[in-house]
Design brief:
3 helices; two-stranded antiparallel sheet; three-stranded antiparallel sheet; alpha+beta
């Protein structure tokens, strides 16, 4: 029997994709929000495509705020965009 592939929905484009194709945005128990490229950090997670456009859509629709039940300041999104750019360079 083939192994089941975990699927997650991107909060930006709302498409179901394989979990390992997406980047996990995590809110730690202390309230810090960061990108989790490995999927191992503790806390509440939401998933976004490794595409800055999806992050922009998520920001516009306030999808991450809804996922975390908390308001996110604009600098959090700027930091996430920066982490996404540097993460692409590290992974590529």
């Amino acid at each position: 029997m083939p192994k089941k592939i975990p699927m997650r929905q991107c909060v930006g484009c709302r498409e179901m994709k394989e979990k390992r194709q997406l980047i996990r945005v995590v809110r730690a128990p202390e309230g810090e929000v960061s990108l989790d490229f490995k999927g191992k950090k503790p806390g509440r997670g939401a998933y976004v495509c490794p595409d800055p456009e999806c992050l922009k859509k998520a920001r516009k629709s306030r999808a991450l705020e809804r996922a975390f039940s908390a308001a996110l300041p604009p600098e959090v999104y700027e930091a996430l965009e920066g982490q996404m750019r540097t993460g692409e360079e590290q992974d590529g």
